[in-house]
């Protein structure tokens, strides 16, 4: 059985959130960027409007904008319920309430949906998933991966994480992964240390960097991987 839309919980973030999550600078904007597991984020749409180069990949892109929009409507109340139940583990500063969070996410996802058909036609949205990406080695300068690796440590094995990060390193000169916490918790992923050790043994430089974004308490760090 192939990838099923009913197993997806789409939740998109905006360009301002990406800037904070990944510590992006104006110089970074000029790079060839891969947004891996981009989902229904508005990052690609917003960057494209500004004249920058972003390719997003996700298995959800095999579906139409109408199908994705329907799935967003189905899962939206479920996600907000989960946020309500874990609100004590979250930082309510820039975002003041679950309701405001929902409004911000929906606005980002609407931008994505508006851009999606044209983006598919232009080759900016590619159907693909880790740990096997359909890109040439070194195609990108920077690969970003948010809320998949480490976030879903309970669902994805250490082997999956190792293969996935190495695949990102194959297609991009630099990789940034955010956050380092397990989903709906304040616990650092148990896979973080073994992944870093393995990468270092493979000749990569790894660095944990603090960023100006914290929604999960303690979730204000990313993993940066690059070749020395």
From TrEMBL:
Q: What InterPro entries does the database record attribute to this sequence?
A: SAM-dependent_MTases_sf (IPR029063)
Q: Which domain of life is it from?
A: Bacteria
Keywords (A to Z) from UniProt: Methyltransferase, Transferase
Q: Which Gene3D superfamilies match?
A: Vaccinia Virus protein VP39
GO terms for biological process, alphabetical? methylation
Q: Does the keyword Transferase apply?
A: yes
Among the GO molecular function terms of this UniProt record, one is:
methyltransferase activity
Query: Is Transferase one of the keywords?
Result: yes
What name appears for this protein in its UniProt entry? Answer: SAM-dependent methyltransferase
Q: Which organism is it from?
A: Gloeocapsopsis dulcis AAB1 = 1H9
